Every structure is written in structure tokens, then in C-alpha cells.
Amino acid sequence: MELKRILGNDNRQAMEEVVRMYGPDALVVSGHKVNGKFELIVAVDIEADPALIDVPDEELAMDEPKAPQAKAADTSFKELLHGQEEPTLSANSSSSYDSARAKEIVELFREEIQVLKREIQETRKASAWHMQMANPKTLTIWQKALMDHPMPNRLRTLLIDSLADIGEPDQAEAQLHAILNEGLTSATELPEDISGVHAFFGPSGSGKTTLIGKLARMAADRFNPEQIAVISYADQKIGAWNQIQLMASQWGVQCYRVNSPDMLKTVLREVADFECVLVDTSGVDIAQHHAEVSQYASEALIHLVVATEISRSSTDRLFKEGLAWDSVNVTKLDESNDAWILLDALLQQPDIQLWLQSESSQVNRPAKLINTAKWIASIIKSVVTETTENRLDHQPDGDDRQDNESVSTLEFLTGLRASRSGDTDEQQEPAF
Q1: pTM assigned to the model
Q2: Pick from 94, 254, 373, 396: CA 20 to 30 A from residue 409's CA?
Q3: 418 lies in a domain?
Q4: Structural domain boundaries enclosing 263
Q5: 375, 280, 282, 283: which is closest to 331 by C-alpha?
Q6: What is the 8-class DSSP label of residue 424?
Q7: What pLDDT digit, counting tens, does each position of 351-373 carry?
Q8: How many domains does one find in the chain?
Q9: Which one-letter DSSP state was computed for residue 24?
């Protein structure tokens, strides 16, 4: 084998260049920044050179058409990396992943349309109730804010109805905190104490691999890194395996790539004595992979990883019957606090525990336990903040008067009289 040096503007561009030049099976040895660019060191096979083979010329001429050495060099590294039972990633597998991902996107779009239809029906059913609350004088500040903020109609109706007899804003806010916190349950196991087998599922882009990298780093600080394993299961997305290799080499932990249930069972048997095993899964065919991992790794804890902002159709799919989760982990909290759709789904699953939160995509920043009270406070704060910003954005700069249009005498006297009738003695200018 020989080492190749690849440069890119960032890690992603360098990974794409590695896959383009040497294929997805290239082994990433290390990566770091050099002079403002990202450098990757990749190990590739050396093609056999007939001139370096110490054999007579006649034998070389006889063996050259067969080229046994070249064939061995072409397959040895792949067999070592994947094993005999595991097929290598090819163009067909990549296209099949893209096809599966495209079908899932279309299915999610259809489900989202159905969700919108149900939302419209729920809105029509609640129209009579909204007409009773339509009088602005009967609405409190929090009720107005909740009506203006985008959230599931079912949750909005519940919250507004709970504030019907509360007029003080502070009491209303405390009531919201009490209702939302009462419906959530959080786990108490610290991420620093993680051990055993853990499998993580979630949509593509939810941050599963990043969270696993953080947990692997925290486990490496506690245990021997050689007793920690990260398994990539059925994830054929370009760059996913390279990312796991890079993180594993950085923390000194073991990593395995598995594409079939039988191979998963074999690898889990090999790492049965390890202190911590983390399984990363694909973002497509979640239900199928959930069933396979539950069957072949019955001792594993099954975790769901979702981003703060998630669609209603995704929550309906992830929290449907048949998919049991030992915990729910929330990522990308630093990007948005608008998590009403996710919160509505969690309130309907009282048996599910919230476990970890990830506020950054940087692997060196550790994961933390979810502070439900703090998380709920940030979500509630987004309601008032966004409502205030929307009112300021829609507030007219004046009375839409033309620049060259003068103020009439009646308007001047009206503004002067209004300014004199104020409760304070502070001098005010008439409103033009």
C-alpha cells in the first residue's frame, strides 16, 4: 500500500475528491488543516510492477497475461476491509441508495400533504371555538401570541384553553411551563457513563454520526479506546464511512462496516467483550433496519436522533406503532428553538424518555443531558420573540401620507388634544 495526499478547501470537498479518485473503499489515515486547506492522507493499493518481480524473463513473459500479482493487489485490501461475505460499494449500490432516498423523499412529500389536509380539517372543526375567542378584548397577551405563532392546531387549542382564566402574563407563562414540563420525561444516565451496545436511528442529516462521534470520544476518555467500537450498518451514503473512519482514527477506537444482518450478527459476536459499542444506521429504511437490529442485537438500546426542526410527517413516521425507542435525542439546538412540532409529538408519547442534546456540529464538544425546563423555556420564548418581531415588521412607518402632502388643521388639533389629555406631565409632540 502507499499513502496519497489530498487537499481541499474543507473536509467535505477533500472527501469528495478521495471518493472520485480512489473510490469509496479508500482508507483515510488522517486529516488536518495545512495552510488554510484541509489535508487528507489516504492509503491505497500499489499496483504490481512486473519489472520489480525477481523472476527470469521467460517466466515473466509466460505469467504476464495472467497477471496474478496484479489481481491479488487489486483485491487484497478490499477483502481485508470488508471480508468475504460483505459486498463492496459499487456504482449499483450507490444508485440504489439514491433511488431509495428519492422514493423516501417522495413518500415524505405525500405524507406532508396528508398532514396539511388533516390540519385544515382540524382548523375547520375548531372554527366555532375560534369565533368565540375572536374578540381581542377577551384575549390575553399569551393567547394572542399562541394564536399568531405557527404550531400544531391540537397543541395550540390545548394551550389557549388552559390560559382562559389567567389574566396575569407571569401566571400564564408559569402555566405554560407547568403543562409542557409535566408531559415530558427525561433520562438521568450521564453520557460520560455510557457502556454496552447502543444503536442510533434517525432521518438523514439529523446528526446521528456526529452524536456517535461525541459519545465515542467521551467513552475513550473513560475506557481503553481499543475496547470501544463504532459500527456503520447499511449506510451507503457517500462519505459516511469515511467520516466514521476519520473519527475512529482520531479517538483511537475500532470501526467496522456492515451491510447485512448476518454480518452484523458476526461483528457483534466479535465485539461482545468490548466496553462500549455504538451502531450508526442509515437515514433510509428506518423501520426495516430497526427490526433487523432489534432481532440480531436484542441487548442493544435503541435511540432516536432528531433535529429540533422536523416535519409533521416525519414525526408521524418515527413515532408510529412498531418502532420502540429507549430514548429520544435532540440535535441542532443552536440553530433553532422552534420545536413545537417535535414537542407536540413527544407530548403524545409519555413513555419515551428524552436523553441527550447536541448544540454543535463539532465532535470535540461533548453531548449533554437534555435540560427539559431550559429547553421548554427557550421554546416558549420563541413565541413572544417572533410575535413581537412580526408586529414590528408589519407596523407602518406612518399613515401612508405622501411626502409632499401637508397636515390638515383638523388632524393637527386632534393630535394636539390627544397629547394634552395624557396622564403624565411630560411634553409630547402632536402626531403628524
Answers
A1: 0.66
A2: 396
A3: no
A4: 185-383
A5: 375
A6: S
A7: 899 999 998 888 889 999 999 99
A8: 2
A9: T
> Under 8 Å CB-to-CB from 172, ≥6 apart: which residues?
140, 141, 142, 143, 163, 166
**What pLDDT was estimated at residue 320?**
80
Nine-digit cell string for 363: 465532535
Residue 179: partners with Cβ closer than 8 Å, 6 or more residues away:
158, 159, 162
Within this chain, do residues 52 and 197 fall inside the same structural domain, yes or no?
no
Asked, for residue 26, whether it belongs to a domain, the answer is yes
Mean pLDDT of 139-146: 84
Of the candidates 60, 88, 116, which is a domain's last residue?
A: 88
Going from the C-alpha of 329 to that of each of 59, 177, 355, 371, the distances in angstroms are: 63, 21, 6, 12
**Phi, psi at 127, each rounded to 5°:** -65, -35
Query: What is the tens place of the pLDDT at every residue in 163-199?
Result: 888 888 899 999 999 999 999 999 999 999 999 999 9
Which residues lie below 8 Å from residue 408, measured CB to CB, with a gap of 6+? none
Nine-digit cell at 141?
Answer: 397577551
Contact partners, residue 232, CB within 8 Å, separation at least 6: 240, 241, 244, 255, 256, 257, 258, 280
Identify whether residues 73 and 190 lie together within a single domain: no
Q: For residues 201 and 303, is the Cβ–Cβ distance under 8 A?
A: yes
- Which of 63, 88, 113 is the C-terminal boundary of a domain? 88
Question: What counts of helices (H) and strands (E) characterise the chain?
Answer: 16, 12
Residue 261 in domain: yes
First vs last C-alpha separation in the chain: 81
Q: Which amino acid is at 251?
A: W
| Identity of residue 9 | N
Do 243 and 352 lie in a common domain? yes
- Which pLDDT value is given to residue 222? 93
pLDDT digits over 30-84, tens only? 777 777 787 888 887 766 555 555 555 554 445 444 444 444 444 444 454 445 4
Residues near 222 by beta carbon (within 8 Å), at least 6 away in sequence: 192, 193
